[in-house]
């Protein structure tokens, strides 16, 4: 009885939040730091906290449905940083990457999926199987006639991305016969942006981080310069639709200044 009442109240509140967002200024691009998988698993009573990675990876598929339903056309998901891959227990990292492979290969490339997939990060630091799954997903969804784009930030570090972009720009200009002095004199932010992992994608309007941490952790340092930030204490696998709608409501209530 109590569960029925609770579910009915939840559905009513979700509909109310959705109605509040009708006609509101919603973000075109939402970036998400999917944090708190292991803490969620421990809180849920699982003996092996690593199982949280499975729930977290599978939950991404559900959150993408919410985004598509409400019209958020660009999503960037921060899966793992370079430091995560290098410093955490190898068995835990292997488990996380297997979960990502399964979600990407089995769910996000199915015919019913509306998302075009774009990997972003140091793919060379990933195991062959993960790199292969991401490349196949990118190729399989490249020609999708869809306005929805998912960027998967994995093996990612924002400072390294900027450094790599500048190196790529200098190499390109050098091949064209330009000196370093020439490049420095004509260098613009837009030129650097075209060499980022996310080239061609709009900057995020809203960055959501779960788990209660209030920091960016090197995520989209260049792209999120003028993004609105939203932090929630909820762990990623427990991030509910009403939590998502609250983040959108918070965004809609803000007046963006873009550094002004």
TrEMBL record:
Which sites bind Mg(2+)?
35, 228
Keywords, sorted A to Z: Magnesium, Metal-binding, Transferase
Asked if the keyword Transferase belongs to this entry, the reply reads yes
Active-site residues, Swiss-Prot/TrEMBL? 35, 84 (proton acceptor)
| Record-listed E.C. numbers | 2.5.1.-
Q: Which cofactor does it need?
A: Mg(2+)
Extract the GO molecular function terms from the UniProt entry.
ditrans,polycis-polyprenyl diphosphate synthase [(2E,6E)-farnesyl diphosphate specific] activity; magnesium ion binding; Z-farnesyl diphosphate synthase activity
Question: Which purpose does this protein serve, as stated in its record?
Answer: Catalyzes the condensation of isopentenyl diphosphate (IPP) with allylic pyrophosphates generating different type of terpenoids.
Q: Outline the subunit composition.
A: Homodimer.
Spell out the protein name for this chain: Isoprenyl transferase
Q: What is the lineage of its organism?
A: Bacteria, Bacillati, Actinomycetota, Actinomycetes, Micromonosporales
């Amino acid at each position: 009885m109590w569960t029925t009442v609770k579910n009915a109240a939840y559905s009513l509140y979700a509909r109310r939040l959705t109605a509040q967002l009708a006609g509101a200024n919603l973000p075109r691009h939402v970036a998400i730091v999917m944090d708190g998988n292991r803490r969620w698993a421990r809180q849920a009573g699982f003996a092996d906290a690593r199982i949280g990675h499975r729930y977290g990876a599978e939950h991404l598929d559900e959150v993408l449905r919410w985004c598509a339903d409400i019209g958020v056309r660009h999503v960037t998901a921060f899966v793992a940083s370079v430091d995560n891959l290098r410093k955490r227990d190898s068995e835990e990292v292997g488990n996380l990457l297997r979960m990502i492979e399964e979600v990407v290969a089995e769910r996000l490339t199915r015919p019913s999926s509306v998302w075009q997939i774009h990997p972003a990060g140091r793919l060379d630091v990933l195991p062959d199987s993960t790199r292969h799954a991401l490349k196949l997903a990118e190729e399989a969804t490249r020609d999708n006639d869809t306005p929805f784009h998912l960027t998967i930030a994995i093996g990612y570090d924002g400072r390294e991305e900027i450094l790599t972009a500048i190196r790529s720009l200098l190499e390109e200009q050098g091949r064209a016969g330009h000196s370093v002095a020439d490049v420095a004199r004509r260098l613009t932010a837009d030129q650097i942006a075209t060499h980022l992992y996310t080239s061609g994608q709009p900057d995020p309007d809203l960055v959501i981080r779960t788990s209660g941490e209030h920091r960016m952790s090197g995520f989209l340092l260049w792209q999120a310069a003028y993004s609105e930030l939203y932090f929630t204490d909820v762990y990623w696998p427990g991030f509910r639709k009403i939590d998502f709608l609250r983040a959108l409501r918070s965004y809609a209530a803000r007046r963006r200044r873009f550094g002004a």
